Amino acid sequence: MGIVANQSFKNILLTYLGFFLGGVNTLFLYTNFLSTQQYGMVNYMLSLATVLTPLMAFGVHNTVVKFYSSYKTRVSLNSFLTLMLFLPLAVVIPVVAATYIFNESISEFLAVKNDIIKNYIWHTCVIAVALGYFEVFFAWVKVQMKTVFGIFMKEVFHRAGAMVLLVLLYLKVIDLDAFMNGLVVVYVLKMVVMKIYAFSVKWPVLSFKRLNNLGAVLKYSMLIIIAGSVATVLLDVDKVMMGSYIDIEKIAYYSVAVYIAAVIGVPHRAMHQILMPLSAKYLNDRDFDALKSLYQKSSLNLVIVSGLIFLLITLNINQLYLLMPNSAAYSTGLFVLFIISISKLYDALLGSNNAILFNSDYYRVVLVLGVVLVLIMVVLNMVFIPMLGINGAAIATFIAVFLYNTVKIGFVYKKFNMLPFSKATAKTFILIAGLVLVFYFWEFPFHPIIAMACKSLLVVVLYLFVVYRFHFSSDISGVLKRYLRFLK
């Protein structure tokens, strides 16, 4: 876990920096500087672009990670990387052409409930292309075991850019249309900077020699579009579908709740970047003992870290909502936040499960299951959103994520005889549940910020004391011991 712990720690810090900036944007700047309709429209646009990202990348970001370590000669490696650079154009060019030709029809289809969406179809298309190629260039450096700068660009850059644009909008330096155009520029610039860094790490040597396993590479790329789309759809299709069923300002309430809950998933996102190439290497080398150790350690460590974040969010959420403008409206997302938070904690339990499945020979079966579950989620959203609004969308998401994750755990166990959890995992969940029962209804009679600080300090000390005292994880105990020694 050495390289995993080292890069994961840096990645987590950068990801939380990004989420801090995003939190300021989401909870305070967007909610103050944009109307709820405008904010809902921004979320809708970015969610739709995110859903399209795996298609725009043509699955290349996963293909690079899976096959890179299998090429042993310079010529074959250069040919492979050349193919990876140009392959996304097979989708990008037709999609851009279709957007140009059928712009009016697409606009009418997407703007059934909310007419404001019509004005930003091209914005969505360009951002989706930029996000797709960003992932390709990020994968380019992942396989060199260099993920830290990529995480900075992925998590921090666009949020800092949005913050600058929001301040300029508030100062009336720019208007709403200029703000939306500025967002497009930020995402395109993010892609360009990532490309420059990726090529500085490994300069591309263009080679168009045919690969021996070209069929396998192309087949994997096309199928992995589905895999990437499954994960993305599970996260964002609810917001896209809400645009056709409910008033767009309610998407803003939903998005704030989901964003806060997403903080729980930060350690998983950060660790996943280094787990992917390591899992691919162990699978290519058939080192299943190392793969199993990575699986179990990553799961336990993620549950412990994400569990603490889960506690800090759920135990302080009522005070946090009090700090927000229009708090009564945004606090209607409280149920959404709780149920999505639980799903994020379940995601943490999977550890390196996704990395194993995406890089193994069994990815085809998982893709079929994923497609089935996405269809179930779409149907659940169609049923629950009209009935329960944003709470219905949260329920649909939770059911889909629960089914999808359970199936993936069962599949890895069946094929590799590995489970991610242990007795220490059970102890961690008992500790989390106990602290929720003790502290949720207990509020300090102070200003919300002071009350949150006091409760958070108490919960952190108790949680880490139990984890350290009863040695839940050797990795986390080692980190805590180093910091305790430093403090002495």
UniProtKB/TrEMBL annotation:
The UniProt keyword set, sorted, is: Cell membrane, Isomerase, Membrane, Transmembrane, Transmembrane helix
What InterPro entries does UniProt report for this protein, alphabetically?
Answer: Poly_Biosynth_Transport, Polysacc_synth
The UniProt entry lists membrane topology as: Multi-pass membrane protein
Membrane-crossing residues?
12-33, 45-68, 80-101, 121-141, 156-173, 179-199, 211-231, 251-271, 300-322, 328-350, 362-384, 390-412, 424-442, 448-468
Does this entry carry the keyword Membrane? Answer: yes
User: What is the protein's given name?
Assistant: Sugar isomerase
- According to its UniProt record, where is this protein located? Cell membrane
Q: Does the keyword Lipid metabolism apply?
A: no
Q: Name one Pfam family in it.
A: Polysacc_synt
Q: Which GO terms describe its molecular function?
A: isomerase activity
Q: Which PANTHER family match?
A: O-ANTIGEN TRANSPORTER-RELATED, PST FAMILY PREDICTED COLANIC ACID TRANSPORTER
- A single Gene Ontology CC term: plasma membrane
